[in-house]
TrEMBL record, chain A:
<feature type="transmembrane region" description="Helical">
    <location>
        <begin position="66"/>
        <end position="85"/>
    </location>
</feature>
<keyword id="KW-0813">Transport</keyword>
<protein>
    <submittedName>
        <fullName>Spermidine/putrescine transport system permease protein</fullName>
    </submittedName>
</protein>
<feature type="transmembrane region" description="Helical">
    <location>
        <begin position="127"/>
        <end position="146"/>
    </location>
</feature>
<feature type="transmembrane region" description="Helical">
    <location>
        <begin position="97"/>
        <end position="121"/>
    </location>
</feature>
<feature type="transmembrane region" description="Helical">
    <location>
        <begin position="232"/>
        <end position="254"/>
    </location>
</feature>
<feature type="transmembrane region" description="Helical">
    <location>
        <begin position="7"/>
        <end position="28"/>
    </location>
</feature>
<keyword id="KW-0472">Membrane</keyword>
<dbReference type="InterPro" id="IPR035906">
    <property type="entry name" value="MetI-like_sf"/>
</dbReference>
UniProtKB/TrEMBL annotation, chain B:
<keyword id="KW-1003">Cell membrane</keyword>
<keyword id="KW-1133">Transmembrane helix</keyword>
<keyword id="KW-0812">Transmembrane</keyword>
<feature type="transmembrane region" description="Helical">
    <location>
        <begin position="137"/>
        <end position="165"/>
    </location>
</feature>
<feature type="transmembrane region" description="Helical">
    <location>
        <begin position="54"/>
        <end position="79"/>
    </location>
</feature>
<dbReference type="InterPro" id="IPR035906">
    <property type="entry name" value="MetI-like_sf"/>
</dbReference>
<feature type="transmembrane region" description="Helical">
    <location>
        <begin position="241"/>
        <end position="262"/>
    </location>
</feature>
<protein>
    <submittedName>
        <fullName>Spermidine/putrescine transport system permease protein</fullName>
    </submittedName>
</protein>
<feature type="domain" description="ABC transmembrane type-1">
    <location>
        <begin position="57"/>
        <end position="262"/>
    </location>
</feature>
Length: 262, 273
């Protein structure tokens, strides 16, 4: 088994070079002193990091993205946590269908959702683009909230809840004082996964642009269409740092099995 | 708890999704069957005779199939290796697979523009070592899209397969070996069949993901249209919502068909999976 393992180890190493190499290269290019992206870099500087803060559209869209992701996240939790609780706690008629409805936003192609949101939420329902962004992002975050909270509820011992209830606590009181604290880490993980999903979203946001309104990833796409300087590389480094931070927190809260289970 | 109360918990979410997603999707699909006020299939007939559209559809299918195939070829051995190494290495390798998956697709596709561009890292390297005399034109071709998509989805199939392979009974492999099975035999008769459910689910995720991906083809594909960029172009720049709705419906149908059929296959192979 040994020499076969060595071959496999080399193969695995090369695959990881393919996966992480591009991210390493983009990180290095962000420190280029000149005005064109190149690898390896010729002079070292932080000036493209400074440039991020000089392009006002980056600041505006960053604020929009943060607000949309946080507000959408909150609504997705308000709609999703009770639903996840009902779906994992009880058996009832139509459960399979309702479960499918809540998961469906990840089954329908994102670009299709984006188009229908533009066509109906913005055009037919006549809601402003901001509302379209907010609603669209809430919808794509819902399945993640449902999935993470459900998986966290699946290990919760519901007899504790019944005990609290039989001791005289009200239904809602039990839920808030007994169930919620027990699935706290699941909810925090759900918030972080859903946040990344929403913050990085392109498929929905690309349809929801208007005069001065856009999200951060869309602004990045617009920028690289016109400029090939290292600004987006510098942004990439900052985004990767945030991503790594979120990943470690989710790993702490839920373990790696959350990611490998399908 | 009374049934009525259970539905009350689900109601807000269901109403929200119905108003903002289910109805818009149904209306979009419905609108494709209406032509000048009456029911007709003309829209579809028109597009399935249009060489340009068929070309885009076939390119997208081809790109997605090749991407899925490459992801399986690269992902399977890597997943097998990860499932066999010690815990600490396993955790590290899994984290290194998950990290790109959580990273913005704009960042990941953009990084390939620096690598496969005309003056990119790859061309510089190959020119320097004298392997080529002219820079390769990879960026803005279907090949570029495939490279970007493999990079995007390979971690997905790796972690899906690791999830299945981890549960594989080590004793079963040892038993097969001690009973005289060759390494290839163990692989073909034990490892492969037991990994099938993961392989099928991973392939669905990669294929559907590639078929519907927007960012990667938009950044790396240049003028080469795929079905999602074609939908976007019709919906926004061309303002042709009838065409966009037809393309959207085709995407939904293909996605659901692939997902349902493959899930059935996975279930047949391993009813417990």
């Amino acid at each position: 088994m040994k020499e076969k393992n060595r071959g496999l180890a080399v193969f695995t190493f090369l695959v990881f070079v393919f996966l992480l190499g591009p991210l390493l290269i983009i990180s290095v290019t962000s420190f280029e002193g000149g005005s064109v992206l190149k690898f390896p870099i010729e002079t070292f500087s932080f000036k493209w990091y400074e440039n991020i803060f000089k392009v006002s559209m980056f600041l505006t869209t960053f604020k929009t993205s943060i607000i949309v992701s946080l507000a959408g996240n909150l609504l997705a939790l308000l709609l999703g946590v009770p639903a996840a609780y009902a779906l994992s706690r009880f058996n009832f008629k139509g459960k399979a269908v309702l479960n499918a409805v809540f998961i469906s936003p990840i089954l329908i192609p994102g670009i299709v959702l984006g188009f229908t949101f533009l066509r109906y939420i913005v055009t037919t329902y006549q809601l402003p683009i901001y509302a379209g962004l907010f609603i669209g992002h809430t919808i794509i975050m819902l399945p993640f909230v449902i999935r993470v909270v459900s998986s966290s509820l699946s290990t919760f011992d519901f007899s504790i809840e019944e005990a609290a209830h039989s001791l005289g606590a009200s239904k809602i009181g039990t839920f808030i004082q007994v169930v919620l604290p027990n699935i706290k880490s699941g909810i925090i993980a759900a918030v972080m996964i859903a946040f990344l999903e929403s913050f990085n979203n392109v498929d929905i946001s690309v349809f929801m642009t208007g005069p001065g309104v856009s999200t951060f990833p869309i602004q990045m796409l617009t920028y690289v269409e016109t400029y090939f300087d290292p600004t987006v590389a510098a942004i990439s480094v900052l985004l990767m740092i945030i991503t790594a931070f979120f990943m470690f927190i989710v790993e702490r809260l839920m373990g790696l099995s959350y990611f490998t289970k399908r | 708890m009374k049934n009525r109360n259970i539905y009350l918990l689900l109601l807000p979410g269901v109403i929200f999704l119905t108003i903002f997603m289910v109805i818009p999707i149904l209306l979009t699909i419905g609108s494709t069957f209406i032509n000048e006020g009456s029911f007709s299939f003309d829209g579809y007939l028109h597009y399935f005779q249009d060489k340009y559209f068929i070309g885009i559809l076939l390119t997208t299918l081809k790109v997605s199939l090749i991407t899925t195939f490459i992801c399986i070829l690269l992902g399977f051995p890597v997943a097998y290796y990860i499932s066999k190494v010690g815990t600490r290495t396993k955790v590290l390798l899994l984290l290194l697979s998950i990290f790109p998956l959580l990273t913005s697709s704009v960042v990941r596709s953009f990084s390939w523009m620096i690598i496969i561009g005309k003056n990119g890292v790859l061309n510089k390297l190959l020119l320097n070592i004298g392997l080529i005399n002219e820079p390769l034109n990879i960026l803005y071709t279907p090949t570029a899209i495939i490279i970007g998509l493999v990079h995007l989805f390979l971690p997905l199939i790796i972690i899906t397969l690791v999830g299945v392979m981890e549960n594989m009974d080590e004793d079963l492999l040892k038993a097969a070996e001690s009973l005289g099975a060759s390494r290839l035999g163990v692989f073909a008769k034990v490892v492969l069949p037991l990994s099938m459910p993961g392989l099928v689910i991973g392939s669905i995720l990669v294929f559907v993901g590639s078929f519907t991906a927007y960012t990667t083809p938009a950044l790396l594909g240049g003028k080469q249209r795929v079905i999602s960029t074609f939908l976007y172009q019709n919906a926004t720049t061309l303002n042709d919502w009838h065409t966009a709705a037809i393309v959207a419906t085709i995407m939904i149908v293909v996605t659901l068909l692939v997902t349902i059929t493959m899930n059935q296959i996975a279930y047949k192979i391993n009813p417990k999976g």
